[in-house]
Write a structure and sequence with these properties.
Blueprint (H helix, E strand, L loop, with lengths): L2 H4 L6 H8 L10 H8 L10 E5 L5 H8 L4 E6 L2 H13 L6 E5 L12 E6 L8 H9 L2 E14 L6 H10 L4 E2 H10 L2 E8 L6 H18 L4 H20 L3 E10 L1
Parallel strand pairs: 1-2, 1-4, 2-3, 4-5, 5-6
Antiparallel strand pairs: 5-8, 7-8
Bound molecules: S-adenosylmethionine (SAM).
The site of S-adenosylmethionine has 24 residues, from helix 1, helix 4 and strand 2.
């Protein structure tokens, strides 16, 4: 569970986004793992069309653009993230192939079978794994690919404290085997599944948050919502360090049947 996924109604969407848009990533992941997942996708060319859903400020969007010749539409609910993504694309000279748009992943403004590849890192829980796979499939060409990271259990059983935390956040969280079965059930051939290494959580997610947390508490001194939000983030990091052998993000890659 990342802040973005669980707190929209519990905390303050604008504050969460104000916090996270200053960071490179809004969820666990890394350029290395994005490239690793990309290696499983066949038939990439300068005609390839990619949708990156729940793109945030677009860290992985840039990695996709720099490692393919594809055209990419990146979509997020938060306009501030999309502004940042489009500014970055401009600075890197990628504006002809990368376009950020504001929208919701459960009501996509796309044509049926428009895309060769749908990408989504750390965001599918916002619509639900099964629902997202089902709905997004309509926007993929036949033989198109999907690549998503999703919170998953590594073991069949786990301590009650961490089980409760995750069930509150992502009620449909399942094991890797279960999630692969959902991919098959929703009409994809599973191509690969791999666990994101620990540095995706520590070096690229929790550690960059620390200085921002201090700064944010100072800026919003006395704001109880901000204090609760930072306490939640710190708890998330503590629980990860205590229970990381039981869960993590898994990259699931499938091909539409
Ligand atoms: N993909 C980015 C990354 O890995 O750094 C961002 C991941 S962040 C954990 C989840 C993102 O999903 C946030 O940017 C949030 O604004 C976005 N989001 C949440 N609900 C959404 C929805 N219904 N439609 C589109 N984006 C949504």
């Amino acid at each position: 569970m990342t802040m973005e996924e669980i707190t929209i109604d519990e905390l303050d969407f604008a504050l969460i986004n104000e916090f996270f848009t200053e960071l490179e990533r809004q969820g666990p992941g890394s350029a290395e793992e994005t490239i690793r997942a990309l290696a499983f996708i066949g038939n990439l060319s300068n005609k390839t069309k990619i949708a990156d859903l729940g793109c945030g400020t677009g860290f992985q969007t840039t990695v996709l653009a720099q490692n393919t010749e594809a055209t990419i539409t990146a979509l997020d609910l938060y306009a501030g993230s999309i502004d940042k993504l489009n500014a970055t694309a401009g600075k890197l000279g990628l504006q002809d192939r990368v376009k950020g748009i504001v929208g919701s992943m459960d009501s996509l403004p796309f044509q049926n079978e428009e895309f060769d590849l749908i990408w989504s890192e750390g965001a599918i829980a916002n619509i639900g794994f099964e629902k997202g796979l089902n709905y997004w499939k309509g926007f993929l060409k036949k033989d198109g690919y999907i690549a998503v990271t999703y919170e998953s259990w590594f073991t069949d059983e786990r301590p009650a404290e961490i089980e409760k935390w995750w069930l509150d956040a992502v009620p449909e969280i399942g094991t890797i085997g279960y999630n692969i079965s959902i991919m098959q059930k929703t009409g994809y051939i599973p191509v690969a599944a791999f666990i994101l290494p620990e540095n995706c959580w520590t070096d690229y997610y929790f550690i960059p948050q620390k200085a921002r947390q201090e700064e944010f508490l100072k800026k919003h001194a006395g704001n109880k919502t901000v204090e609760d939000m930072i306490a939640f983030m710190r708890r998330e990091a503590e629980l990860y360090s205590k229970y990381k052998q039981y869960y993590g993000y898994v990259f699931y890659i499938g091909k539409k049947m």
